[in-house]
């Protein structure tokens, strides 16, 4: 790690002001992505703006037909929240399967979604449920939020404050884990609800994406068989020492099928 | 003396599952490891390492770095060369087929002229804090001329490949052989079947929980050097570093290996960092500390395995093995690590008879330099490679000839009445009973009921398979004279001192070293058994050259077979002397003194003396045979084994494959091992389970991957798949004992059997599960992607036909 200054603001406005004042400042939420990167000296921020003291970024609440989850909500809180379990059980299920206990007790939904790791879990929920990302300055629909590998629509001095999930009729998630990191090698979140029928695929490509062919098939016939025959083209998928693009393409179909089963 | 209370004391001798006494310390965070040590005035070093696999070092400019805050000193290869610091030596000389010695290029402490793998240390930056040292290391400007990196043996052996070392043209370290080639050719000439199998033994990265660490300390007033290090054998480090690298005589060099958090072989070797901190501490007259971070561990701890082999087995019409021919390429990495050269030769090819009566064997091994981390012994060292080759080959033979895989094994087993059994590859097995371990294994694993389980799995869409490995290995490498003739540059005996204190408590000084094995418990049990001293009155001391007279350390499952035997010898001397004291006290003849359970008795009488009475007399010799005996009760013994020991047994794995994803789930694992006499069954069970976990890791999960330029792709826990609890199956462990005939305890060794026997059992199970897919062999690890592509590829082929 390199030396840096440390700030702990208590309001979103103060945090944004700190980030705006210093282009090399970085927000730190649960720190479970950022701190390892700092330890490896892959990142050299001048200062860290710790989000843990900001009350506006916390909490889980239901508002009408939507669930609003504050950015600084730990994975373990989402996993165990009765409100989430009642409204969108797939979110609790997903959160309960991120990393291990230590990761779940520190990592936050805001950090995960802002980071947009291609192999992360939450981006699939945001895209697959058609959520709306509330930031310090605007509301961004999921379809416009994830731009590419580790890239989102957030400006450098813009903070993710909360995520608004419309409550679906049905939703399911399935993933194949990378054997080493246990991040997602290929996953699918399928849902049917106010945001339509959606299929979000994570892990397989450089960024979470929607699988239009599967969405159409499920819209016509909501069943595992509907997606079983649909082959994801391997062209733009990831390939690494744990699996080829072809393997991932195959897994996309398998996981989509399982996600539909899990959705019930 | 009243011994009526004895029955109330729990039995702690040989055969008792005494709880590990070291665990309280370890589990409560009170272990004392090298990194826990801080010396007054200590500095910290950061090694600047080559980012290139192969590069000429054109220049190293340290001027800017030297001006950074906190920097104390910076040394480069030019400085070590100027001080005439030797290279770290290789401990075993192998000769080529033509009798010429192997190529043995130097392994400089700091790279000089050239860097030969990613991680090769180019400079050491010493500062007041680790952070400052690392900051300054980033300011060292190294100009490299990048050369083609030779990441694989195929690349290194290509006709136009550049030489990694000038001294080793063609990148060959040696081209060695063993066995009778003519007899083997003759066997092949009259064979009914010849079965050929090409296979790879995947390269592994050890990953001890505790990263390596070393502290050099120097007292300018006395000239005493001390090295604290994460080592499995401090005396060996003292010898190698003192005599060959730094030219420090033993009496001025102390090496301490305190609690060590796992080694698995990777902490046997003398590493450059140890020499660097010891040398630098004297140069700056301040202690110098280094602790690897996990990234450094991945790229500098010696890796394991990495063989490419072709094996051919000749059989007659009854399935009897007539001859075996093996040709192996073994990756040495960029430099020769301490025992690297012996692993693919005397620890591998000598094991190729396995448990079978194959009369003619010929093996040739080519050792190859590559631009990768040095490769050396890793849990099993050579024997897992031999076992995987042989036990896979036997299954392939069964498949190709249509013989049952159990039947073919039974037909070729060495029979119990054939011991001692002389193999055609130098070893002579003293004991074993492969039929019994096989039968016990089959029963414990319910082999007979497997087809029903397979059908049940099939009904769930799963492919279930069962696999077996009937293996043998060699532990306690020995005897010194023989290994010396084979090129070993050290003796392979062990040393034990038994220090009986005046009140009858005992301190044992052992030259072996415990880094997870539980010696503090097991070795104490030997004392309870032989001297009748209560368990809590025995202390085992190891790991410090200033305390222990001498020793060769712990590797190759030798601690009990060799170190325990040395203790037995020393205790024999204690008893002999104590009997003379007892005879004097009881006014009897020494021949009439019997010793049992801590009591000396005049035979046939009720005259007794307790052990503690004798020890007190030895140190307070008021009434003592002072004319004929020295006072005191302390004895040291050196034990040089007469032969290796030969543990063996039967491992059975059961797996279930999910065809949709290719994921292989371990559902059951059964190990029945003959480890000789069992001292502590609980520790044996734990050792076997740990070894099996590593074997399953090798078979299903782990593999070291370099890209074509020699960059390590599997260089972190995010990329290298270490087994986790849910990757494993319940591992049931049982033992079947035949005693080792040539050591006083009858023990054979249990530290490595798990890692040696299990990988072929797992792969045999995977291949069995893929029965319907026309699969003959699967190289390790059987990852989901690999299995899926086999299922997918073969299914497609079937569809196309
Ligand atoms: C061992 C391990 C295993 C893991 N396994 C998984 C897994 O299986 N699946 C998975 O999805 N994840 C996994 N993770 C990642 C984990 O979920 C992280 O916690 C998460 O990705 C990042 O969240 P964080 O709160 O820790 O963010 P931080 O590390 O604090 O921040 C991550 C990045 O987001 C930025 N950021 C944080 N909060 C905000 C905000 N509110 N607005 C704008 N920018 C912000 C930061 O500046 C930083 O660049 C694992 C992590 C570890 C260490």
Task: Describe this structure as you would to a colleague.
The complex is a heterodimer of chains A (264) and B (801). Chain A has helices at residues 12-21, 34-39, 75-80, 82-87, 89-96, 101-106, 109-115, 122-128, 142-145, 212-220, 224-228, 245-263; strands spanning 5-7, 25-28, 47-50, 60-63, 66-70, 132-135, 139-141, 146-148, 151-152, 160-166, 170-177, 184-193, 196-202, 209-210. With 264 residues, chain A is of the alpha+beta class. Among the domains of chain A are: 1-52, Uridine Diphospho-n-acetylenolpyruvylglucosamine Reductase, domain 2 (2-Layer Sandwich); 170-263, 2-Layer Sandwich (Enolase-like, domain 1), CATH 3.30.390.50. In chain A, the strands form 4 sheets. In chain A, strands 4-5-10-6-7 form a 5-stranded antiparallel β-sheet. In chain A, strands 11-12-13-14 form a 4-stranded antiparallel β-sheet, sandwiched between helices. A 3-stranded parallel β-sheet of chain A has the order 1-3-2, covered by helices on one side. The radius of gyration of chain A is 18 Å and the shape is globular. The relative contact order of chain A is 0.12. In chain B, the strands form 7 sheets. A 7-stranded mixed β-sheet of chain B has the order 3-5-1-12-9-10-11. Chain B has a 5-stranded mixed β-sheet with strand order 7-15-14-13-8. In chain B, strands 18-26-27-28 form a 4-stranded mixed β-sheet, with helices on both faces. Chain B folds into 4 domains: 3-30 and 493-639, Aldehyde oxidase/xanthine dehydrogenase, molybdopterin binding domain (Aldehyde Oxidoreductase, domain 4); 148-202 and 303-413, Aldehyde oxidase/xanthine dehydrogenase, molybdopterin binding domain (Aldehyde Oxidoreductase, domain 4), CATH 3.30.365.10; 210-300, 2-Layer Sandwich (Aldehyde Oxidoreductase, domain 4), CATH 3.30.365; 427-475 and 645-801, Aldehyde oxidase/xanthine dehydrogenase, molybdopterin binding domain (Aldehyde Oxidoreductase, domain 4, 2-Layer Sandwich), CATH 3.30.365.10. Chain B is of the alpha+beta class and 801 residues long. Chains A and B meet through helix 12 of A and helix 4 and helix 20 of B. Bound molecules: flavin-adenine dinucleotide (FAD). Flavin-adenine dinucleotide binds at residues 26-34, 36, 51, 71, 98-99, 103, 107-108, 110-112, 114-115, 117, 120-122, 154, 159-160, 182-183 of chain A.
């Amino acid at each position: 790690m390199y030396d840096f200054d440390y700030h702990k603001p208590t309001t979103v406005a103060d945090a944004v002001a700190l980030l705006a004042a210093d282009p090399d400042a970085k927000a730190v939420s649960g720190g479970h992505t950022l701190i390892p990167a700092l330890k490896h000296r892959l990142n050299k921020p001048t200062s860290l703006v710790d989000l843990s003291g900001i009350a506006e970024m916390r909490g889980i609440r239901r508002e009408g037909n939507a669930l609003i989850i504050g950015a600084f909500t730990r994975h373990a809180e989402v996993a165990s929240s009765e409100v989430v379990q009642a409204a969108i059980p797939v979110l609790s299920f997903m959160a309960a399967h991120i990393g291990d206990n230590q990761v779940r007790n520190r990592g936050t939904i805001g950090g995960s979604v802002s980071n947009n790791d291609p192999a992360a879990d939450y981006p699939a929920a945001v895209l697959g449920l058609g959520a709306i990302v509330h930031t310090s300055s605007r509301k961004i629909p999921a379809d416009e939020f994830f731009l590419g590998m580790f890239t989102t629509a957030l400006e450098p001095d813009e903070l993710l404050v909360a995520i608004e999930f419309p409550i679906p009729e049905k939703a399911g998630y399935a993933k194949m884990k990378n054997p080493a990191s246990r991040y997602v090698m290929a996953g699918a979140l399928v849902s049917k609800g106010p945001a339509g029928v959606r299929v979000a695929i994570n892990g397989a490509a450089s960024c979470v994406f929607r699988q239009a062919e599967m969405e159409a098939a499920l819209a016509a016939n909501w069943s595992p068989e509907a997606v079983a025959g649909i082959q994801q083209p391997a062209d733009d998928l990831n390939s690494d020492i744990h699996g080829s693009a072809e393997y991932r393409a195959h897994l996309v179909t398998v996981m989509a099928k399982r996600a539909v089963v899990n959705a019930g | 003396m009243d011994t009526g209370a004895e029955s109330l004391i729990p039995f702690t001798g040989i055969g008792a599952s005494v709880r590990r006494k070291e665990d309280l310390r370890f589990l409560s965070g009170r272990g004392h490891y090298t990194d826990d040590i801080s010396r007054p005035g200590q500095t910290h070093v950061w090694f600047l390492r080559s980012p290139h696999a192969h590069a000429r070092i054109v220049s190293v400019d340290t001027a800017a770095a030297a001006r950074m805050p906190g920097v104390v000193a910076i040394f480069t290869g030019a400085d070590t060369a100027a001080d005439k610091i030797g290279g770290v030596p290789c401990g075993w000389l192998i000769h080529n087929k033509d009798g010429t010695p192997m190529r043995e290029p130097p392994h400089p402490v700091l790279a000089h002229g050239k860097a030969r793998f990613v991680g090769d240390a180019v400079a050491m930056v010493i500062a007041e804090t680790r952070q400052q040292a690392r900051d300054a290391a980033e300011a060292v400007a190294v100009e490299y001329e990048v050369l083609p990196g030779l990441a694989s043996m195929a690349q290194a052996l290509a006709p136009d490949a550049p030489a990694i070392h000038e001294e080793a043209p063609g990148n060959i370290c040696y081209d060695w052989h063993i066995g009778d080639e003519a007899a083997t050719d003759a066997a092949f000439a009259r064979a009914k079947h010849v079965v050929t199998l090409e296979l790879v033994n995947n390269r592994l990265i050890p990953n001890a929980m505790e990263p390596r660490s070393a502290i050099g300390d120097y007292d300018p007033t006395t000239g005493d050097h001390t090295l604290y290090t994460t080592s499995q054998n401090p005396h060996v480090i003292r010898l190698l570093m003192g005599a060959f690298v730094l030219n420090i005589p033993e009496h001025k060099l102390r090496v301490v290996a305190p609690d060590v958090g796992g080694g698995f072989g990777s902490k046997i070797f003398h590493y450059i960092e140890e020499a660097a901190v010891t040398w630098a501490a004297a140069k700056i007259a301040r202690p110098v500390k280094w602790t690897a971070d996990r990234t450094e561990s991945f790229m500098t701890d010696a890796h394991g395995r990495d063989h490419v082999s072709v094996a051919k087995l000749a059989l007659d019409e009854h399935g009897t093995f007539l001859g075996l021919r093996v040709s192996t390429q073994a990756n040495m990495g960029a430099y020769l690590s301490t025992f690297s050269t012996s692993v693919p030769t005397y620890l591998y090819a000598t094991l190729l008879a396995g448990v079978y009566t194959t009369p003619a064997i010929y093996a040739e091994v080519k050792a190859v330099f590559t631009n990768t981390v040095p490769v050396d012994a890793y849990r099993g060292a050579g024997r897992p490679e031999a076992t995987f080759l042989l036990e896979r080959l036997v299954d392939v033979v069964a498949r190709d000839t249509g013989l049952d895989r159990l039947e073919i094994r039974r037909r070729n087993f060495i029979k119990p009445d054939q011991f001692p059994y002389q193999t055609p590859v130098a070893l002579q097995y003293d004991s074993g009973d492969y039929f019994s371990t096989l039968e016990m294994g089959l029963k414990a694993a319910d082999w007979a009921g497997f087809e029903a389980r397979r059908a049940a799995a099939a009904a769930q869409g799963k492919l279930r398979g069962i696999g077996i490995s009937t293996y043998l290995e060699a532990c306690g490498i020995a005897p010194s004279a023989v290994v010396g003739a084979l090129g070993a540059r050290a003796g392979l005996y062990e040393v034990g001192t038994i220090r009986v204190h005046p009140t009858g408590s005992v301190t044992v000084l052992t030259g072996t070293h415990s880094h997870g094995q539980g010696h503090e418990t097991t070795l104490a049990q030997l004392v309870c058994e032989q001297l009748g001293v209560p368990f809590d009155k025995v202390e085992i001391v190891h790991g410090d050259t200033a305390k222990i007279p001498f020793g060769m350390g712990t590797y190759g499952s030798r601690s009990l077979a060799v170190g325990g035997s040395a203790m037995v010898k020393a205790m024999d001397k204690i008893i002999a002397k104590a009997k003379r004291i007892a005879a004097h006290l009881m006014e009897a003849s020494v021949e009439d003194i019997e010793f049992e359970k801590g009591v000396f008795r005049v035979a046939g009488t009720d005259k007794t003396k307790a052990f503690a009475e004798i020890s007190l007399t030895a140190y307070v010799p008021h009434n003592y045979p002072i004319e004929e005996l020295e006072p005191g009760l302390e004895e040291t013994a050196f034990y040089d084994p007469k032969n290796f020991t030969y543990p063996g047994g039967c491992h059975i794995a059961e797996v279930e494959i999910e065809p949709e994803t290719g994921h292989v789930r371990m559902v059951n694992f059964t190990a029945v091992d003959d480890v000789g006499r069992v001292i502590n069954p609980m520790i044996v069970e734990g050792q076997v389970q740990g070894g099996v976990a590593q074997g399953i890791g090798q078979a299903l999960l782990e593999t070291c991957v370099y890209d074509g330029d020699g960059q390590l792709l599997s260089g972190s826990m995010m990329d290298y798949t270490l087994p986790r609890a849910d990757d494993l199956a319940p591992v049931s462990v049982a033992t079947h004992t035949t005693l080792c005939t040539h050591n006083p305890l009858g023990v054979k060794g249990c530290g490595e059997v798990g890692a040696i026997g299990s990988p072929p059992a797992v792969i045999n199970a995977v291949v069995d599960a893929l029965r319907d897919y026309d699969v003959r062999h699967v190289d390790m690890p059987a990852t989901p992607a690999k299995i899926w592509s086999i299922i997918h590829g073969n299914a497609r082929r079937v569809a196309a036909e």
